[in-house]
Design brief:
123 residues, 5 strands
């Protein structure tokens, strides 16, 4: 149990650091980073003056899992219409997020089965 909590905290540290800096109004000072959290998946944390964006690559090997994940991810777009003040969630299934490519030019060279999902937190 302690090891799994350590792994969670260690992998999540860049996100926590960026969000704490955003809360203090100093998010622009946090350097963008790319984290390999599984053998075939990564996530990117990118900060600017007024927002932090975390983008996760999505890779499913099983065709059924791919189809179910696609339906689920497309529902994020629909669910924004039914919620008041929803979080900023973008699903990039065809084109890689421009923010990630600007900071990490080689990121869009790898294709993921279900693309990338991005969550943004604004001040």
């Amino acid at each position: 149990m302690k090891f799994s909590c350590f792994k969670r905290d260690f992998i999540g540290a860049p996100i926590r650091r960026a969000l704490l800096a955003l809360q203090k109004g100093d998010a622009a000072s946090v350097k963008a980073c790319e984290i390999n959290y599984r053998s075939d998946e990564k996530f990117w944390v990118i900060s600017s003056k007024s927002e932090v964006t975390v983008s996760f690559s999505l890779q499913f090997d099983n065709p059924t899992d791919r189809a179910l994940a696609r339906v689920f991810l497309l529902e994020f777009v629909d669910s924004k219409r039914h919620c008041r003040n929803p979080p900023s969630i973008m699903y990039h299934d065809k084109k890689f997020p421009d923010q990630v490519v600007a900071k990490f030019p080689s990121a869009d060279k790898i294709k993921y089965s279900n693309g990338v999902i991005s969550f943004s937190k604004f001040v």
